[in-house]
Amino acid sequence: MTRTIHSPASSSVQDRVILGIDPGTTIMGYGLISIQGNQMKLISLGVLHLSKLSDHGLKLKTIFEKTLSLIEEYKPDDLALEAPFFGKNVQSMLKLGRAQGVAMAAGLFRQVPIFEYSPKKVKQSITGNGNASKEQVASMLQTLLNFKETPQYLDATDGLAVAVCHYFQNTNKSGAEKSHSGWKSFLASNPGKVISK
């Protein structure tokens, strides 16, 4: 399910494009916004369904390919991702972390700067409440970006919320929680994530 408001070709050269992704191994949500001056416009939002794929490796490959195709189609200046939250289920955490990792790898592969935000930070940024429901986030985004249809899957608005959060954080100059402009930058700030043999 994808909803496109205007095609990438109609974007002005001065526009900044932000791709937001809510990683998941069942459904990945994504949203794209363009920024011109202080005007924020919705480009597209949608979801990638992964539930029919039984193999976890194949799901990760599909996430990588979809993220890559979004980058190639819309040429975003930044890629903002929702960081996995710490839950009780370690297996779910691990799978979410892998999903986020392959989406990040696609961005780094195309040299798109990567930014991460916690779910609480995203909700706080959009609604003013870090414990807001998905419905409240979707409703606020409809107001901010002036669209009426509520997507069938709120994962789409979750992905869009990450893009909008990134824009707000940069506008407010409070910055993203983490940013990486390439593999070197990522490895330098995450030495514990690399195992050398």
Termini distance? Answer: 43 Å
Q: Assign a percent range to the helix content.
A: 40-55%
The portion of residues forming beta strands comes to 15-25%
Strand tally is: 7
Q: Using only CA atoms, what is the Rg?
A: 16 Å
Question: Structural class, from secondary structure content?
Answer: alpha/beta
CATH C-level name: Alpha Beta
Q: Please tell me the overall pLDDT.
A: 83
* CATH fold group: Nucleotidyltransferase, domain 5
Reading the helices and strands in chain order gives: EEEEHEHEHHHEH
Report the CATH superfamily: Ribonuclease H-like superfamily/Ribonuclease H
Supply the number of structural domains: 1
Number of helices: 6
Main pleated sheet: 7 strands, mixed
Question: What's the CATH architecture?
Answer: 2-Layer Sandwich
Strand arrangement in the largest pleated sheet:
1-4-3-2-5-6-7
Q: Rough shape?
A: globular
Spans with pLDDT under 50 lasting ≥5 residues?
1-13, 174-181, 192-197
Detail the topology: elements first, then pairings:
Blueprint: E1 2-4, E2 16-22, E3 27-36, E4 39-49, H1 56-74, E5 78-82, H2 90-109, E6 114-117, H3 119-127, H4 134-145, H5 155-171, E7 178-180, H6 183-189
Parallel strand pairs: 2-5, 5-6
Antiparallel strand pairs: 1-4, 2-3, 3-4, 6-7
Helix pairs in contact: 1-2, 3-5, 4-5
